[in-house]
Amino acid sequence: MEATRTMTSDGRKCPGRRLAHGAMISPMSLSWSLVIALCLPLGDGSAACASVQAVLPISSVAGLPMNSKISHLPLRLRGGGLPFRYEDSWKDITVRMPIEDAIKGRDIVYKLTPSSLELGLKGQAPFVSGELWDMVKTDDSIWEIETHPKLGRCVTVQLVKAKGAKWDYLLKSEDVPPDLTITHQCFLDIEIDGESQGRITVALYGKTCPKTVENFRALCTGEVAVDPEKHKRSSAAGKPLTYKGSTFHRVIPQFM
């Protein structure tokens, strides 16, 4: 977070808001609010995104007790973990299910109706099973075994849509509201030119994206030591794994 352009609530440019460690302080009066957009990578190659409404003023970085009061927006968060991947276009949707080298075409279970899809391997629970987001043309849809540059050997299913439109999901069963239980709270205290300005409180949804939450929480507390093998950039720069001393790249009032 390198602050190059920041602005006050009335649109005037101001110095970057630098983060620093410090003891937890009591809530302060706040003049305006900031919405932070986070999009952080997960270990399985996917990403979980969130928008967090936080109040501006920052000066230290740490965790907060769970009885602290904060405000947050209703969010729709999605993570990875599915045993298949899909790409959506206007006319069709492509589903890819990774398989082992020993799997042959006769081992594939593929059942398609205009409104549902079942895809998997014989003798196993299906990887894909349920009502599709919208209708498809069964006669025009095909499947084959191919080698994908990233997924490796996989079953690829091309579903031709009955009508051109973007799908929110592949299956209607995926449209499940996220668990917005707040499992952790962290704070970032802001300083401007060395003067304390207040605190951003961030609610973390650990039941929705646990890896992302743990990474963010540990960066707030600074509890993880730098491993020269795993953290080569931090080790080379001589920097700890923490947000301490960082600055916001940009602050845009009422942006989201």
Essential attributes:
mainly beta; 41% strand; elongated; disordered N terminus
Describe this structure in words.
The protein is mainly β. It has two helices and 16 strands. It has helices at 210-221, 232-237; strands spanning 5-7, 13-14, 18-19, 32-41, 47-56, 58-63, 85-88, 92-98, 108-113, 116-121, 128-131, 136-148, 152-161, 184-192, 195-204, 250-251. The strands form five sheets. Strands 3, 6, 14 and 15 form a four-stranded antiparallel beta sheet that branches. It has a four-stranded antiparallel beta sheet with strand order 7-8-13-12, with no helix packed on it. The protein has a three-stranded mixed beta sheet with strand order 2-1-16, with no helix packed on it. Strand 4 and strand 5 form a beta hairpin. The longest helix is centred in the C-terminal third of the chain and has 12 residues, at 210-221.
